[in-house]
Amino acid sequence: MEPTVQRFVRFGEAVNLIAQHDSSKSFKSLIDSAPHLFKGFQLVYSSDNTELDFGFASLSDIEVSCKALKKYYCGSGILVYDDEIYGKTASSGRAEFPLNFSIYFDSNVAAAFRTWEAGGEVRDPRFFELMEYLKRYNLNFNHSFFLLERFEELNNRNNSHPFDTIRALKRFDYTKTRESFNGLEFEHLLDRKEAGNLAIQDIMTFAR
Q1: What does pTM read for this prediction?
Q2: Which long-range contacts (CB under 8 A, 24 or more apart) does 66-70 make?
């Protein structure tokens, strides 16, 4: 098992490599330049190279067909890296398994998930576009990035938004879908208590 100090050193080297990488170059050229540095890490990478084939579509195609998955940083394409998924993609040539997507859409859509889970009315059309897109392409959320972004809020007992969001996403993960004239319809398979217990497990695992 890698010592903690050594892991921190390796993480720093990986961060430096990312900072020096030209965002116009491919994500593959970044990872393949030093795969040992990224082993065991998950990272979000902003790229201007949006024509990269991401299994079933290029990043530019994803952004056009589902704008709710797009969030600008210094580049236009957001990739979420996981070394196990990347290795399988490299060996098979296609991502024929669920891809990890962080909750990288704006806070309005996150709020819509909480409203939807609580049985309220959601008027933001991007939300339904996102739900349908994720289910049709068998995508799932990687909650760790969201928890990192909300780390300070997790320690604030007066702010329930991080917990409520994770609970809403757990219920969404376990929804059953069926086709209708208006697109996909969703049926909850978990009640709020069951989804809440799963959310607590995620948060406790992250806290360790």
Answers
A1: 0.62
A2: 66/129, 66/130, 66/133, 67/126, 67/129, 68/105, 68/109, 68/126, 68/127, 68/129, 68/130, 68/133, 69/101, 69/104, 69/105, 69/130, 69/133, 70/105
